[in-house]
Amino acid sequence: MKLSRRDFVRICTGTVAGIGVSGMFHPFVRDVLAETLTGQRPPVFWVQGQGCTGCSVSLLNNAHPGIAKVLLDIIALHFHPTLMAAEGALAFQTMLDKANEYAGQYILIVEGSIPVDEEGKYCIVGEVGHREYTMAETIDMMARNAAAVVAAGTCSSYGGVPAARGQRTGALNAATFLKRRNIPTPVINVPGCPPHPDWMVGTLVMLLDAMKRKGVEGGVLATLREADDLGRLKVFYPNTHLTCPYLDAFESGDFTTSMTDKDGCRFDLGCKGPWSGCDSATRKWNGGVNWCIANATCVGCTSPGFPDEVSPFYEN
Question: Where is the NADH:ubiquinone oxidoreductase-like 20kDa subunit domain (predicted)?
Fold first, then answer.
């Protein structure tokens, strides 16, 4: 079964009749993805830098399809420090060798920011033959030969907490790091602290699907055309406040002064929803059970200025 680009995006956003957006995608899409992406798939390497590993933990919560299906049938994940059984020098060297073998064809996922001060020694990600590899050196090597870089999470997309005021490591986001190193590999951002598993899996699926249909270079370019000016795929980051269930209260000036008030808008309590630009309000989290503003306020974690420009998170 073949899907047009328009139908694929409509299913991703849940705009097809009978297909919801809570949880990843309708089971129908699972079958389509299995059919579309089987066979030779570009290798995916996931490298973790300065971060809390929360983006990986979020990925493991993917529900439809389950994470086993994602890793075994949809994404050819060759390296992930948290998920793989192998470790140490052998695992790291295998990643380098595999990347050399598939130069120009693989996808590099970067989780966490990249520290560059003190020669990058604030973050060591591997060791081979008693030689330590910093996050900066590893991303420099891997990104140069990648077809595309996917920045998983706000730390990798925009700097996040490691790059906030007061940091001493020279933490950079992936796109800035590549620009300073004159590495032209395109970057697709998947911000969030952490990002919804749908956003991560969906971004990868759209990229892999485009690469299969249009070739490596053509597929990457086609995917980039789906991104906004912040490097996020618009299908998951619509950059709108119009889907918030409290929109009517916001527009009518009905602002609550208490978290226990389930009806009023939380803007006066510090909600950053108007600037966040993601689909949490309709997609929801935890299998569609709840979402951020149901019991709190949005802290703007998908925004480039997180956390400095959106602090304080709560206001009295």
Answer: 52-207
